[in-house]
Amino acid sequence: MAICSPASPPAGRRALLDGNLARKKLPPQDEEYVIWDTELPGFGLRVRPSGRRVWFVRVRQRGTQRRIALGAAEDVDAVSARKEARRLLGAVAVDGLPKKEAVKAAPTMREFVEANWNDLARHWKKSTRIRHRSAWMYDLGPVFGDLRVADITRADVIRWRDDCASRAEARFNRAVSVLACLLKYAEAIRLRPKGSNPCRGLPQ
């Protein structure tokens, strides 16, 4: 049985593939070259001799490596390209595995947060990032960190809420909002079924 995983990029040019880099006029060369992302293995930007730049993700599926184009840099922004790359990597990781093994292949909340925090935090103010990180580290991580993203249920969240009864109300309300945000993003990159967020409608 072959384990599916993202292919490791070869040595070469590396950079954080964000909107700033995508807007730069990268110098074309006589031959096509690739810039690999420093944060998401397999995510890259192909620069062709014509100067055209194309996002892609390289995966290894059942022993075979292949590149999947995600769109030209002038048509697809960096954030969207990264999200799609992450989704495809996640889909390939469980493709062809028996159901029980597919569940095991899904990341824990701790793994998910560490892998995706920068993507989420870039849209928050500095003070918000600090508060949300604190909520994850002290209120959410110890409870949900070892649970797999796809396995967190409404019952888990309600049990945690009831255990928080003696804590400050504002602290719990902030933490539950952070958890809801994390699980919403997990839905967006297809690590959870759409509409499955167990925090939805939870009284604060």
Architecture overview:
By secondary structure, the protein is α+β, with helices and mostly antiparallel strands. The chain folds into two domains: about 5-100, Integrase, DNA-binding domain (Double Stranded RNA Binding Domain); about 105-190, Orthogonal Bundle (DNA polymerase, domain 1), CATH 1.10.150. Helices cover about 45% and strands about 15% of the residues. The chain contains seven helices and six strands; from the N terminus they run ββαββββαααααα. It has helices at about 20-25, 80-95, 100-105, 110-120, 125-145, 155-165, 170-190, and strands spanning about 5, 15, 35, 45, 55-60, 65-70. Strands 1, 2, 3, 4, 5 and 6 form a six-stranded mixed beta sheet that branches. A hairpin with a 2-residue loop joins β5 (about 55-60) and β6 (about 65-70). α5 packs across α7. The chain is elongated. The termini are far apart. About 25% of the residues are buried. Mean pLDDT is about 80; it is low at about 1-10 and about 100-105.
